[in-house]
Automatic annotation (TrEMBL):
Enzyme's top EC category: transferase
Its biological purpose: Involved in the biosynthesis of the central metabolite phospho-alpha-D-ribosyl-1-pyrophosphate (PRPP) via the transfer of pyrophosphoryl group from ATP to 1-hydroxyl of ribose-5-phosphate (Rib-5-P).
One GO location term (cellular component): ribose phosphate diphosphokinase complex
PROSITE patterns (alphabetical): PRPP_SYNTHASE (PS00114)
Binding site for ATP: D38, G39, E40, R97, Q98
Similarity comment text for this entry: Belongs to the ribose-phosphate pyrophosphokinase family. Class I subfamily.
Protein name, entry field: Ribose-phosphate pyrophosphokinase
Cofactor needs: Mg(2+)
Lineage of the organism: Bacteria, Pseudomonadati, Thermodesulfobacteriota, Desulfovibrionia, Desulfovibrionales
Organism: Megalodesulfovibrio gigas (strain ATCC 19364 / DSM 1382 / NCIMB 9332 / VKM B-1759) (Desulfovibrio gigas)
Length: 312
């Protein structure tokens, strides 16, 4: 049976949802997303969704708990309205850094979030650059973890000179290697020591960066301490210029001030998280859109085509 395609959004990133609709040539399904006087969330889908293929665009960015709850309520509303299939499009998956127990008596928050979304009525998940790929295993349903790599590669291939792709820590080596392979560039890794959450000290560079344009690749920038320290270390090691590429601009706490004062010549991020006024506060930041990438994934899923063709 043929299902109509519908796009619904919460309040986390409506601009991205509209951009996805522009790529797909469809309209955004109207929905009421309000807050009652006591802080509780009200959700109402204004169009008929019975039997249709519905995609809900809602990154769980700050305020993460509000946006997560809003997403769950939208999923529940669609489930109770008899939508044929409901796919959560969560470009930024909040709580992803809490993917295992690192101390006694601590929760595995990423797993709990997956349970929330599943129970709420989600049939499938689309996300981008999960902090830990193994989070896909927390779901007993299809998960499409897309990569922002093709979005950044378009810019990086226009860079001149000798390029080196840099991972800011050992955990991101696979990501940096993937970029380096496609760019025909060399690879370097920052040796980092982390003493406590959100505080890290970059120690030294493994690899040759002297006289090269160094591109630091990460999945997110939170407080920016790690990536700013990486820029200092790379320049001290002889890099000619440092550029940052990070998929998710979380940018909490002192991040904007640190980035503006950093030695990066440019900081590339995507619109998985809306920046708002933060963009104006740091002219070094350039936002690249993932709307086209998400639109292709949505189209392929809706038409029962392969999604793996998007994994370059």
């Amino acid at each position: 049976m043929s299902r109509d395609l519908q796009i619904v959004t919460g309040t986390a990133n409506p601009e991205l949802a509209y951009a996805i609709c522009d790529h797909l040539g469809c309209r955004l399904t109207p929905a009421v997303t309000e807050t009652f006087s006591d802080g509780e969330i009200r959700v109402e889908i204004k169009d008929n969704v019975r039997g249709n293929d519905v995609f809900v665009v809602q990154p769980t960015c700050a305020p993460v708990n509000f946006h997560l709850m809003q997403l769950c309520l939208i999923l529940d509303a669609l489930k109770r309205a008899s939508a044929g299939r409901v796919t959560a499009v969560v470009p930024y998956y909040g709580y992803a850094r809490q993917d295992r127990k690192v101390v006694p008596r601590a929760p595995i928050s990423a797993k709990l979030v997956s349970d929330f979304l599943t129970v709420a009525g989600m049939h499938r998940l689309i996300t981008i650059d999960l902090h830990a790929g193994q989070i896909q295993g927390f779901f007993d349903l299809p998960v499409d973890n897309l990569y922002a790599l093709p979005v950044f590669l378009e810019y990086m291939r226009g860079l001149e000179g000798d390029i080196v792709c840099v991972s800011p820590d050992a955990g991101g080596t696979e990501r940096a290697r993937s970029y380096a392979k496609r760019m025909g560039a060399s690879l370097a890794i920052i040796d980092k020591r982390r003493d406590e959450p959100n505080k890290a000290k970059a120690m030294n560079v493994i690899g040759d960066v002297k006289g090269k344009r160094a591109v630091v690749l990460d999945d997110m920038i939170d407080t920016a301490g790690t990536i700013v320290a990486a820029a200092d270390v790379l320049l001290a090691a002889g890099a000619e210029e440092v550029i940052a590429c990070a998929t998710h601009p979380v940018l909490s706490g002192p991040a904007i001030e640190r980035l503006q004062q950093s030695k990066f010549s440019k900081i590339l991020v995507t619109n998985t998280i809306p920046l708002g006024e933060k963009k104006e506060a740091c002219p070094k930041i350039e936002v690249m859109s993932v709307a086209g990438l998400l639109a292709k994934a949505i189209h392929n899923i809706h038409t029962e085509s392969s999604v793996s063709v998007l994994f370059v």
